[in-house]
Structures are given as structure tokens and as C-alpha cells.
Amino acid sequence: MTPLQSQLWQLLKLPTWRCAHPERLPHAPAPPLEMAEVLLVTGQGKLLPPLLRTDLILALSLHETQLQVMDEATWLAAGMPSAKAMLGLNLTGDTAAFGWHDCLPLTPAKKRELWSRLCSLCFAH
Q1: Per-residue pLDDT tens for 61-104?
Q2: Less Cβ around it within 10 Å: N or C end of the chain?
Q3: What is the pTM of this model?
Q4: Helical ranges in 1-107 per DSSP H
């Protein structure tokens, strides 16, 4: 426990004990989430086609947690989190924060544009 946590336990007169094991305690704060490599925001009421999600994960060699998908309302409520590559589909609000945005369904030309933009956003080091 940190000194502040120890003081809080003493103030609340809770029983104290020492733990020498490195595992997390059940009520310990969760570690902060890693920032997603790719954040895809969908317009309100729109769902990302499962095949598109799978294709993005495979094409970019991402782990499941590196591609985050959220709807526009959730994204706005969360304070507009960002990622290395910001994509938007069927957005109703401002699109300035996004590296690429368009509407579903994606035509072959839109898919090529998306892939080109993803390459420049994810692999430009």
C-alpha cells in the first residue's frame, strides 16, 4: 500500500495486514488502458461490419486491443480520446480530429483510400 492508502486504512480503523505477493488485490485500481493504435468511431446507431473489423486487424497485424471501436456518442462522452490512427464512419459531428472519415458501405475506391491513409498513419516512422 502507498502511505496515503495506509493512512486511510488507519483513519477508517480497518484491519491492516501486509502482503508480500506481487499479485493485484481484488479492489486495487485497474491499470490504465493502453492507447489504441487505431480508433474507429462510428456514427450514432451504426455498427461496424464484423468483416471490416477482422480485415483491419489482420491487415495491420494488430492485437484485438489495439483496434478500438466506439460509437460517436460514447467517444464524445469519453472526452474524445485519440489514437495513432483516427477513423470515422457515418459521423454526424465535426470530423477535424479524424485522419480519415467516410460513410458505409465502402466502395472499392473508398477501401483503397482507407488503406492508403492507414498505411501513412500507421507505418510512417
Answers
A1: 888 889 999 999 999 998 999 888 999 999 999 889 999 999 98
A2: C
A3: 0.68
A4: 3-11, 50-60, 72-77
Cell of 34: 493502453
Give me 40's grid cell. Answer: 474507429
For 89, the 3-state DSSP assignment is strand
Selected residue with higher pLDDT from 103 and 44: 103
Number of H helices, E strands in the chain: 4, 4
> SS3 breakdown of the chain: % helix, strand, coil, rounded to 5?
35, 15, 50
d(CA 82, CA 89): 15
Angle (deg, nearest 10), helices 108-122 and 50-60: 40
Edge-first strand listing for the sheet containing 67-71: 67-71, 38-42, 85-89, 100-102
